[in-house]
Amino acid sequence: MDESNAVWALDFKGQFKMFNSRYCYPLTIQDGFSRFFLECRGLYSTSIELAKPVFIEAFRKFGLPAVIRSDNGTPFASIGLADAVIED
Prior knowledge:
Elements (H helix, E strand, L loop, with lengths): L6 E6 L3 E2 L5 E9 L5 E7 L4 H15 L4 E3 L10 H7 L2
Helix pairs in contact: 1-2
């Protein structure tokens, strides 16, 4: 697909410990055509409860892509997030 907003790439970019001793898990959503970062949000975990509002906000702001790609690592190896987002 050779147009903007057709394919999104998702990933949690590892984690790092912050000065407050909590871990930060950067969630990124990137447009596959333009390589533009639609979202880069630091979360306290990779839980659906924290990630779901980020996806809903991105869908409302940019629309739904035709395809969403991930590396199928945690937490994307399940259908839980997709089910949670579709329900709203």
